Each structure stands twice: as C-alpha cells, then as structure tokens.
Predict the structure.
Amino acid sequence: MMEKLISTRTIYKGKILDLYKDKVILPSGRESFREVVRHRGAVAVLPWINREVILVKQYRYAVDKYLWEIPAGLKEIGETPVQTAQRELVEETKYFPRKLEKLVEFYSTPGFSDEIIHIFIATELIEDTSKNADYDEFIEVESFSREKIEKMILQGKIEDAKTLVAINLAIAQNKLN
C-alpha cells in the first residue's frame, strides 16, 4: 500500500524549485509528514566529438566547489527534453548536435524530490556561436579522451552524479569508441 496524501502546504515557491510539506497516512495507518521538492526537470548532454568528451567546469555555490560536468540545464516551460538538450549544448559549448540519442532518464533524488534528469549523448556536432551562456554562468570548456575521463573518475575528479551516470552508461553501451 502506498502513502495517502491528506494535505499539502506550500513552504516556498522559487525560480528553480518549489518546496511543500505534505501530511500523509502511512501504510500502518499512522500520520507522518513529507518534505517534497517539486522541480520541472533537467536535461544533460554528453557531447562526443573527435573521440573526446566535452566537459564544462563551473562553480557550484551549494557545494562551494568548481566541478567538471557534462553540459546541463533546466527544462524551460513548454520545452521538450530534446529542445533543452540542443539549447544547453549550444549555450555552454558552442556546438549544435546533429544527432542526439537518449541514454536514460532518472530521478535525481527520489527520497525528497520529483526531479527527472534526461540524459542524451550528442554526436555529429557542428559549431554554433548564436547563443551565449546564461548571465550567471561562468564556465570553462575542455575536451578529454575516454582514457583521461576514466582516470578522472577513478581519481575522484568528477563528482557530479549526472555526469558519472552519463559517462559510465555510455561506456557500458560502447558509445565512446
């Protein structure tokens, strides 16, 4: 039996996420509370060009660190995951993907959030300088061989979950050959 919602209270509504406190009935019949983050979803893209993966390095305020990541961003309202993938890749790397293949979609933190991340691999990239990174993004872009990426993972230099999922899944599916 699943938990049954009794009531919900909005705690915070923001640009990126909304926070709710839900009162629920547990399968045992007891009442409890759940704090839930509602999120419109995100897309991440693993760019593969000239036998190299393109990563972006950017400062992440929440963890107070610079992280190597695959390009990613929030889905805009009304945008499909493919449109978001194309937009984010151009904004962050100046490449447009002629070919996008979905690798996976997954819940990032289902213990408290409904955020779904759609991950694509992008190939057949062409230069596109029509868009710039968002005003609040300061990123460094660099390409790495598969071997270098694997070393970075083993050395703990790639700490971002969506990036680890994308790279390891692409390797497991023989997409980075």
About this structure: The chain has two domains: 4-39, 42-172. Helices lie at 81-93, 146-154, 161-172. Residues 81-93 form the longest helix (13 residues). Residues 4-39 form one domain.
